[in-house]
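Prompt: May I have another protein with tokenized structure?
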Amino acid sequence: MKAKAKQPLLHAGLWIYLVVTLFPFLWLVTTSLKPAKSVNSADFLGFFSPVLDNYRAIFTEGQFTDRLWNSIVISFATVLITVAVGSLAGYAIARMNIRKKENLFFFILTTRMAPPVAFGVPFFLLMTKVHLLDSRLGMIGVYVFMNLALCVWLTRGFFDEIPKEIEEAAYVDGCTTLTSFFRITLPLSIGGLITTAVLVFIMTWNEFFFASILTRNVAATYPVHLTTYFGSREIEWGKLAAASTVVSAIPIVFAILTRKYMVRGFSLGAVRNSK
């Protein structure tokens, strides 16, 4: 009876949380559809006639399309390289007898402990020296470095959850360590790998600090481009909202397409950790 009495309160709390969470996105979409003369009004959809002028403007004026394409290329390339290298490193730390393995693992994690601003000057000098300043390749290298520790940490936990006996059975059948990894371990940990890929993608997609100091025109990403809508005399709220809506939709769609794998990935380790 007490549990049934708590259900309405739980549902009410969830609805309140949902409204509070979605309100900024609702404001963003609403503002992007407003005409220029009413962009500062507090009216929501249904109280004004929506127009697509702001969307038309960002795709026909300026360099928004180029910046968006840079973000797509850099983010997906970073995810592919980071997950490929990080999963191998995570598997090695989880399964192999490496001398001072925990010390090595802690050293890898230290790359995520310092604030990004601590790497700003070293990265700038390095990219200038190797002639990769304002290049997609240089930005991919920076983002792989910044996200690799997270990937190793997550994938090690996922591989630890897979019983070693399954791989030992594969060895009996003639599989090598590498063959067992690709045929047995990877398929069993696909949920965790996709969860890691989504997290790395979101962190790379939304990153602003390194993009602002290591790019100029060629490899500039969309977060840098959004600052161009802040003028000295006015802020172009309509175009800013339209561009933000477009770039927000991409990771949302990505997460929706991989949601079933993400649920499996987040649930890995739940049984052992609850003991």
